[in-house]
Each structure stands twice: as C-alpha cells, then as structure tokens.
Design a protein that fits this description.
Blueprint (H helix, E strand, L loop, with lengths): L8 E5 L2 H13 L8 E5 L23 H27 L2 H22 L2 H6 L10 E6 L9
Antiparallel strand pairs: 1-3, 2-3
Helix pairs in contact: 2-3
Length: 148
C-alpha cells in the first residue's frame, strides 16, 4: 500500500558542510524543515558515556590478557627466584622471595600486555575509522537527498 509522503529517502555525506548544503538545497526545492532531519553518527566507540569512556562494557582486545598474565607470572617468578638465589649469599635468603615477587609482578604485567589486542584485531574489524563523522539527510521526497 502506497501512502503519499510515507517514503524515507536517506543520504550519507562526509561532513557537516555537505549536510548543510544538502539541507539548504532541499529547502530551496520545497521540503519544509519539519519534513527532514539530519544527524551525525559519532566515531565508533564514542556513542555512550560509560564511567571509563566508550560505549562497550568489555574490550575484546583484553580477552586473552588473563592467560597472558598467568603465563608471564609463572615465567617471571621462576626468573626472579633464580636471580634471587644467585644473590642470596650476598643479600640473604630474603633475596629469593623478593626476586620471585618482583618477577611475578613484572612477568604478569608483561604477559598481559603482550597477549592483549591480537584477538580483537583478528575477530572484530573496525567498522569506521575513528574521527570520521558521517552526516545523514532524511527526506520524504525520492531523490532529494542526492549529494550535489
């Protein structure tokens, strides 16, 4: 069933100036302000103000961070304990515990940071590059939103 004025025509333009020109052209051609609308699509990740920023509750890039931290802590703890054992005759037995603690800390940090990011890049491509604003023109008149 076709109702006059029930069609929605949309155009995507690259910047606000192009949207201004398009809307002005529509107004010159008889489209009233109430018959059209325009809005901007923010860059990906900037749609909602969560307390820490962004618009997603989790970061897919951090998915593998915990396993990397565990592996790094194990390796770092072993290296730190070995170094602590080597310097224990000079510093004392506490060097073993201190070396192991420092190794666990440094290893877990390095392991987590090293393992994050690859999963997100492999499975979640960026839909739009950050910083790109896309403006949209919506009008009930077919062909009226074609960029000039």
């Amino acid at each position: 069933m076709n109702h006059p004025g029930s069609e929605i025509v949309a155009a995507v333009v690259e910047d606000e100036q192009a949207a201004d020109r398009l809307c002005a052209s529509l107004r010159r051609n008889g489209v009233r302000r109430g018959e059209m609308d325009r809005f901007a699509l923010n860059p990906a990740g900037q749609h909602h103000g969560l307390p820490l920023g962004g618009d997603e509750d989790t970061d897919a890039g951090a998915k593998t961070g915990s396993s990397g931290a565990i592996a790094g802590a194990g390796l770092g703890g072993a290296v730190g304990a070995t170094i602590g054992t080597a310097v224990a005759p000079v510093i004392g037995p506490s060097a073993i515990v201190g070396g192991m603690a420092a190794g666990v800390y440094a290893g877990s940090l390095a392991g987590a940071l090293n393992s994050m990011g690859a999963y997100a890049e492999a499975t979640h491509p960026v839909v739009r590059p950050p910083g790109a604003s896309w403006w949209q023109c919506v009008s009930p008149i077919p062909g009226s939103c074609a960029p000039s």
